[in-house]
Design brief:
The structure is a homodimer.
Chain A lengths: L4 E5 L4 H12 L3 E8 L6 H12 L4 E6 L44 H16 L3 E3 L15 H14 L1 H4 L5 E3 L7 H10 L24 H14 L1
Parallel strand pairs in A: 1-2, 1-4, 2-3, 4-5
């Protein structure tokens, strides 16, 4: 029996690398999808390429979408990336209030990414999409919560030929309730080489991580806990 | 009091031109959004530009998104556009069976378009998005149905900063229950010049409509009925 196909959203960070390893371990033929969306740096896409190859993705597509035309986020415009914020690790955010959503939030980013994954899944005849969102050790983005993922899946079932024909596409978010340390432990079991991954929001011109943005702090705490 | 902002999805066809006129008549400052998504021809984007200008959109952004990397539709690949199909006009399709979804269906297209509209709305501080989908005189696409629009709106409320903060974005689909003839009558009342619009799926190299694809047939029947 052939392995079923799945589309895996792959950023090059440690979460999505772990998700790719999980999908592979579950027996899927993995089609990895990354985006050049006006990030300030290319280090993240270089990491995605290394990870896709190393973990045996069958195909890796990088789509160009220019979110800079809209502006509105520190990741795609000239707003400074905040440093040394107090990042809450291990606390569940059910519905973050305004002040908890940082300027690194990219409007509707996961919705855009999942929409493209949906289009590709439909063309491939895949019924499974994997995304590395996490509601526990996260930065307070609304589109990382379980209720958001469930609502997207429901909408996708109504949007597509597959859904109308009775085989709706499933959105898998296997990390959603895991701590960063658990994610790292799981990935190690599955042979993920985290040296290949890249998490920083604001690396220098040489692609060196800053160590002080939310993503760097979460990553560092995760490794500290996983090794403790 | 300033006019509230709205994002209007504008294809250059007669439906979206009418929607732009409706949004304008309702008092919105209109930000029009079109996509270069690997259509076979440019006639449709030329029409979108003329319509945006003529109906007084404040801004018109054309985003490049390359859906051809996925393939899978007659509108973006080498599959021939079907001609002289029997198009049912005026019949409600609640959940079209497989055979009713034509090869011109672009996988997840409206989901992708609405996702970008959502991102832009959030950046603009707009709480309103307009889309010209129609569940009556339509070609059998699943992502044109009222239940799909409602599910997208619900998902959008969970995806975005605006939604989390208690001012969710509304998806307006003012044409959803109108016949093509009603749409044309409404647009004429509001001063839409339909000579500027373009509907054909398969024009020749000079941008001349074929007269035989689903879109041409629906348009012709709509005008015949509106003038009857």
């Amino acid at each position: 029996m052939p392995h079923p196909r799945a589309v895996i959203l792959l950023s090059g960070g440690l979460d999505s690398a772990t998700v790719l390893a999980i999908a592979k371990a579950e027996g899927f033929t993995c089609h990895a999808l990354s985006f050049r969306y006006g990030q300030r740096h290319q280090a993240e896409l270089d990491a995605a390429r290394r990870v896709a190859q190393s973990l045996g993705a069958t195909q890796h597509v990088v789509l160009d979408i220019d979110l800079r035309q809209f502006g509105g986020s520190a990741l795609t415009s000239d707003i400074p990336v905040p440093k040394d914020r107090h990042v809450v690790v291990g606390a569940q955010h059910a519905a973050p209030p305004h002040s908890d959503i940082p300027v690194t939030y990219v409007p509707a980013r996961n919705t855009i990414f999942l929409s493209f994954a949906l289009a590709w899944a439909e063309v491939l005849g895949a019924q499974d999409i994997f995304i590395g969102v996490n509601a526990l050790d996260y930065s307070g983005y609304p589109d990382c919560r379980p209720e958001y993922i469930a609502a997207f899946e429901r909408m996708a079932g109504l949007a597509t030929k597959a859904g109308v024909e009775g085989s709706p596409i499933k959105i898998h978010a296997p990390l959603i309730h895991m701590t960063k340390a658990d994610i790292i432990r799981k990935g190690r079991e599955l042979g993920v080489d985290y040296d290949m991954t890249f998490s920083c929001y604001d690396p220098d011109a040489h692609g060196t991580a800053c160590g002080r943005c939310d993503a760097c702090q979460l990553r560092a705490k995760g490794f500290a806990e996983a090794l403790a």
